Amino acid sequence: MFKKVLICNRGEIALRIIRTCRDMGIKTVQVYSKADADSRPVELADEAILIGPPAAGRSYLNIPAIIQSCLMTGADAVHPGYGFLSQDTYFAEICRDSGITFIGPSPEVMEQMGDKSSARKLMADAGLPVPGGTERPLAGYDEARKRAEEVGYPIILKASAGGGGRGMQVVWERAELAEALENVRNTAQAVFKDNRVYLEKFIRSARHVEIQVMGDRHGNAIYLGERDCSIQRRQQKLIEESPSTYIDDDLRRRMGEAAVAGARAIGYESAGTMEFLVDPDKNFYFMEMNTRIQVEHPVTEMTTGLDLIALMIRVAAGEPLPLRQEDIRPTGHAIECRINAEDPAKDWAGASGTLTRFIPPGGPRVRVDTHGYSGYTVPPYYDSLLAKVIVRGKDREEAMDVMLRALREFACDGITTTIPFHRQLLAHPVFRSGEYHLDFLEKYMGTDGNLRAEAAD
């Protein structure tokens, strides 16, 4: 087992990793930027090293500074969390070459699955269903027009190197294609430094259901249930729950077995997530694989009772998975709300400033993962996630009621957050019915940031 783990991330996920390492008797090193000098992870880690100014490119993405921090402190492993360097093949290779264990899959697997068009072909070869579309990046507009007509509109253009919901655009008719292709290529180049784009059939009235998988280097792989992530704004998840209201036990089993088949086909080690779309006829299609821990992993932890970070660490240390598929028996219903420093009434614009009062909720069946505290200044340089409220109930009705109770208790003054939005959402009749789809916000959200009871025409 590792003696010391360096965490090259920040915020709530850094704090989450520190806590599990402490439970496992592992020392921690927290790297940080000047903007995070007063953060809770810096305070609670065994060691903390300043690696750069606020800009992520000069701190949390500064690979030489992170590797040097490992060598200076004697850290024998790195946990990247999510975002930043968590799916950076080059960083994982540098860690390996430096004798430092990267807590995650191999760089070769990350590279395979990081290219979305390549991943699509790999999973199709492994027997997973994929939407109609292209198996390689588009050569140009003429090929895009031809393939779009073969697949049939609407289609969706996606950046091959994309992730996190960025670099995507739905195209409803041929007249929109040229401009959309140019937009997605420009976004892909700006965000991912890779302008390759591929095409898929766009599935209407779909649900986004993902399967949590875990694999080890001994050839074992299991799935830990699903999470429904269909409440999104611009492909960014806002709320997650498990189990999904949209699938039955047979479909749940088939999706889980498909996810494990895909993981085994690439020799996957560590925690990963197979993301699927489910259409109104209950057909499911592979979208992509996230080769890291995800923001919403506590939902799975609440229903299974497992610590996914601990499993990642054990697998990275060479231990076999301590569980078999028959040991996984999720119970109850869990919901997670992402509390972001954003203003829904201003097109989800990010907010920053000092938290003049910050009192997270508590009580039975409530978990809050956050790095916030009264007096903490939310910096403007990073992702807007401030806290995650995760609740559990014996069934979905109870879980929704517990979440409403928790959101009403959550006191957060000084900046604008999504807490009021989530209160509306948890009380909305369509959400409470469980009969919602990926277009929920397009139908029910007004320009003032409030949810309507009736769908817009």
What gross morphology would you assign?
A: globular
Share in β-strands: 25-35%
CATH classification, class level of the largest domain: Alpha Beta
CATH architecture of the largest domain: 2-Layer Sandwich
Task: Tell me the Rg in angstroms.
Answer: 21 Å
- CATH homologous superfamily heading of the largest domain: ATP-grasp fold, B domain
Distance between the termini: 58 Å
Number of domains: 3
The neighbouring-strand order within the major sheet is: 13-12-9-10-11-14-21-19
User: How many E-type strands?
Assistant: 22
Quaternary structure: single chain
How many strands, which pairing sense, and closed or not: the largest β-sheet?
8 strands, antiparallel
Helical content, roughly?
25-40%
The mean pLDDT is 96
If you had to describe this structure to a student in words, what would you say it looks like?
This protein folds into three domains: 4-103, Rossmann fold, CATH 3.40.50; 132-201, Dna Ligase, domain 1; 207-444, 2-Layer Sandwich (D-amino Acid Aminotransferase, Chain A, domain 1), CATH 3.30.470.20. It contains 15 helices and 22 strands. The termini are far apart. Helix 4 (89-97) links the parallel strand 4 and strand 5 (101-102). The longest helix has 17 residues, at 249-265. It is globular, with a radius of gyration of 21 Å. It is an alpha+beta fold and 457 residues long. The chain is 33% helix and 27% strand. The model has no long low-confidence stretch (mean pLDDT 96). The strands form six sheets. It has an eight-stranded antiparallel β-sheet with strand order 13-12-9-10-11-14-21-19, sandwiched between helices. The protein has helices at 11-23, 40-44, 63-73, 89-97, 107-114, 116-125, 141-151, 177-192, 249-265, 297-304, 308-316, 396-409, 419-427, 429-433, 440-444, and strands at 4-7, 27-33, 47-52, 77-79, 101-102, 155-163, 166-171, 197-201, 207-215, 221-233, 236-242, 270-278, 284-290, 333-340, 342-343, 349-350, 353-354, 357-359, 366-370, 377-378, 385-393, 411-413.
